[in-house]
């Protein structure tokens, strides 16, 4: 049992369940598991969430002003702000988080500013908050160089400011990539005006992680309880990823690295059909309002073998992990936990028990993360 900063000894589940008391594990979720304490790999978890008080304050103030109607991502931020034990875990980059990592056997977390991040605050405030976020994350990495790495936040609505901040994050702060919490008020980074950000990411050798957020103004999700992981989250990242491919971004920026979570948001299952149906969008004039057609240089599946990596966040399920490793290659699937939203020692144990070659397991748990996010130490 981990010792917490207040001196109490509080189990991980007990800490979390104050906010998620109705959550139960049923069906396919593992029942119990033993974490291997001397595993021949270091577990690097690559989609681990954090936030900080000034950002939560800016989100809540903008939400309460009523000036951003229809932004369900901003409403989601408001919902998270009212969960005190979740916030205590998201906002800690020290003893509490490290205690939970020790309990779960996680050697290193890759920190991502949690959805919806800086891209939902009042326009004009996002880049300053991104700068503050990146300074805080870099300090945590300096304080705990063997335990934390971090991705840079940016507000894509401010293109020039984002490019400058990404340059600072890469050169001054030594951060390990960048995170975008999917759409921003219904806009996507595959739109031409945001291409300078993609160009900067490629030039700076920073991988882009597109993490889900709630769909924009989507009552058909909300009324069914589906705005999150049950539909809205994966659907939005699916659109974002396919949008990037069919925008020609990877032909224009062939070294651009994209990472998507939650077992590739189900996309790997469809590679065969994507190639078959490519002509629905590829090379057609008039798409995206452009007179000239965008014609891809490769089959859709090519980009999943050249530019895209996936993480396993929230899907500690052997058949899905093995399938993705088979169709994308063992060097393109990375372990992630999704702390603190979905942590479980039973899920960690699933990875320890996976029936795959030892070399592939080390790629999955450690080495692919080092390669994609340029992690050393
Ligand atoms: Mn996540």
Key attributes of the depicted protein:
377 residues, alpha/beta, TIM Barrel, six-stranded parallel sheet, three-stranded parallel sheet, 17 helices, globular, disordered N terminus, binds manganese (II) ion
**Strand residue content:** 5-15%
CATH-derived topology:
TIM Barrel
- Which parts are unreliable, with pLDDT below 50 for 5 consecutive residues or more? 1-18, 20-24
Name of the level-1 CATH class = Alpha Beta
How many domains? The number is 1
CATH level-four homologous superfamily name: Metal-dependent hydrolases
Helix content: 40-55%
Which small-molecule species are bound to the chains here? Answer: manganese (II) ion
Backbone structural class: alpha/beta
What is the N-to-C order of secondary-structure elements (H for helix, E for strand)? HEHHHHEHEEHEHEHHHEHHHEHEHH
Q: Please, could you describe this protein's structure?
A:
The protein has 377 residues and is α/β, with parallel strands linked by helices. The protein has one domain (40-372): TIM Barrel (Alpha-Beta Barrel). Helices cover 43% and strands 9% of the residues. It is built from 17 helices and nine strands. The strands form two sheets. A six-stranded parallel beta sheet has the order 4-5-6-7-8-9. Strands 1-2-3 form a three-stranded parallel beta sheet. Helix 7 (159-171) links the parallel strand 4 (152-153) and strand 5. Helix 2 packs across helix 3 (72-81), helix 6 packs parallel to helix 7 and helix 7 (159-171) runs parallel beside helix 8 (195-203). The model is unreliable at 1-18 and 20-24 (pLDDT under 50). Residues 47, 49, 211, 313, 338, 341 line the site of manganese (II) ion.
